[in-house]
């Protein structure tokens, strides 16, 4: 699953600027993906398909928090479900601030 609306919007804005004479490059930030299913809604972001990540997973009756950390212990991906979805925006900011 890949986000599709935000990249389209950012691409269109960059294209418009360049058509008006600017020389802007397209830069895509970490984007939140929302999976809306009745049984288990999820929010996820980052490089969830990387094979080198170590996943720290916490599961409870309130849902799941899974954080994918690289070798330098930097957050590179996350998945949250149910009651923990409210943490998604702060986790996206943490992804964006990672070097």
From TrEMBL:
GO-annotated molecular function: oxidoreductase activity
Residue span, Rubredoxin binding domain: 25-95
Oxidoreductase is among the record's keywords: yes
Swiss-Prot/TrEMBL keywords: Oxidoreductase
InterPro entries reported in the protein's UniProt record: Rbx-bd
Domain of life where this protein originates: Bacteria
EC number: 1.18.1.-
Pfam families per record: Rbx_binding (PF18113)
UniProt name for this protein: Nitric oxide reductase FlRd-NAD(+) reductase
Organism for this UniProt entry: Cedecea neteri
The gene coding this protein: norW_2
């Amino acid at each position: 699953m890949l986000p599709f609306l935000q990249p389209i919007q950012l691409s269109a804005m960059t294209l418009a600027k360049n058509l008006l004479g600017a020389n802007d490059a397209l830069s895509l930030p970490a984007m939140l993906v929302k999976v809306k299913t009745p049984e288990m809604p999820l929010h996820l972001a980052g490089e969830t398909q990387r094979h080198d990540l170590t996943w720290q997973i916490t599961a409870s009756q309130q849902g799941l928090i899974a954080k994918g950390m690289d070798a330098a212990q930097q957050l590179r991906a996350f998945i949250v479900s149910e009651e923990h979805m409210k943490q998604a925006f702060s986790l996206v900011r943490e992804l964006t601030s990672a070097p």
